[in-house]
Every structure is written in structure tokens, then in C-alpha cells.
Amino acid sequence: MRLREADSSAAACFGIKNELVDDSLAERIYQGLRAGILDGSLEPGSVLRQEQIARRFAASRVPVREAMGRLEGDGLLISRPRRGYAVHSLRQNEIVEIFELRVVIEEHAARIAAIARTDDDIDVVTGLVERMETVARQGGNYGSDWARLNRDFHLRLVASSRRQRLLGTVETLRDSVEAYVRAEMGITGDVESALLEHREILEAFRAGDADGLARLSRQHIEGTARRLLDGLRRRSSAQALGAT
Q1: Where in the sequence is the domain holding 168, given as residue range(s)?
Q2: Does 156 lie in the same domain as 204?
């Protein structure tokens, strides 16, 4: 645990009280809120007030402000003057744009990863696919576990490119739509097509087939975008009918 002290002679002169920031607590708050945003328990548009978050984590507002500032920097929260923070809610055209970027960037990453991957990368990615298949076969309420493994699978593929900035960009883009993707999966409950596509992606990755892996990655992301947008349109239509 590292404590940072905001101390200065100027602050003392003006009677400003020094504040100690517990980095471990700020990190815990950050990770807790981030997990809630990604899994959808903190829904897009939800208002988050510092005093409520502070009570929830038994913390002062100082680490809460730090955590929320980081989440705003990640693009997961937006600051609303005098109203606190809100979970970023995306319009449909923004979702389309994010997936367009993902197609280009992850296709590029796949091409590099197929060449740069190591035996250890292959073992890890294989294990993630097998665990996703096991979780899906077990049935029950597996959505959260499957979604976490799915995210790890795609990020490990990109990490195999050994391009850290590329990985960071992909992670930011994926996180911005993660809650929407998980919501779509929760509505349809359909992971069979994704599992089949993951197997094809894995085989191309194992074989070091750069062109094949790039093509499959593009098709997989385009399919996810299509299912998500169709689901959002159906939900919007249903809500419109319910309002009449």
C-alpha cells in the first residue's frame, strides 16, 4: 500500500487540510466499479454519486474521486457538472463506429499474432476455448463466466502480437461496448455460433495462418456487431410498442 500526501507550504498557509490517498483502496474502488460497468450491473446512463460510492466502499471521497477520474479517462464514465458521474451510454451510431474500428484493428492484430505467437500463447488460448466450451456445456446461469473467458480469449489473441499499444487500444474499444455485448448474449442466450467461430480462430492461430486468422477475426467481429445491433433494434421497437 502506498500513501500519497498532498502537502505544500502554500496549502498549509491557506488552511487546506492535507489528504492521504490510499492507493490500494482507490484501486479496489476502480476495479469494483469497472467490473460493474462491464458486466452491466451498472447500466449505461446510471448516475453514480460520490457519497453513495464512498459509503459502499467504506471510504472517503478522495479515493472515490481518483477511481472515478480514472474511469472517466477510460471512457466508461462521463462527468456531469453538479450531478456527479454517469455510466457512459452509447448511441447506436457510436456502437457502429466502435465496431468498425475494432474490425480494422483486430484484423491487423490477428495477422501479426499469427506470426509472433509462441507455444505458451497457443496453450493459453487453447485452454480458454476449452473452458468456454465446458462452461457452456454445464448450462445454468453461465453468462458471466463465459463473458469473462470470452474477453480473455480475444485479448490474449491480441497480446500474442507483442504490440502493447495495439493491445491497449483494443482493450479500450472492447470495454466501451462490453456491457452491450453481454446484454445481447443475456437476451438471446446464444453462444453456439461464437463457440464454433472460436474453434476456427484457434485452429488458424495454431497453424500460424496469418491471412486466415485475420479473415476469421474480421468475420467474427462483424457477426457480433450484427447480432448486437439487431438486438438493440428489436428492443427499441418493443419499447416503442409498449409505450403506445
Answers
A1: 92-243
A2: yes
Query: Domain boundary at 57, 87, 117, which?
Result: 87
Mean pLDDT across the chain, nearest whole number?
Answer: 87
Residue 23 in this model has a pLDDT that exceeds 80: no
Please report, for the domain that includes residue 230, its CATH number.
1.20.120.530
Strands of 77-80's sheet in order across: 47-48, 84-87, 77-80
163 band by pLDDT with thresholds 50, 70 and 90: very high
Residues 182 and 232 in one domain: yes
Q: Are 21 and 112 in a shared domain?
A: no
pLDDT of residue 10: 34
Q: Which of 49, 90, 101 is nearest to 179 (CA)?
A: 90
Q: What average pLDDT does the segment 186-191 reach?
A: 66
Q: Which residues contact 25 (CB under 8 A, 6 or more apart)?
A: 57, 59, 63
Q: Do 69 and 12 fall into the same domain?
A: yes
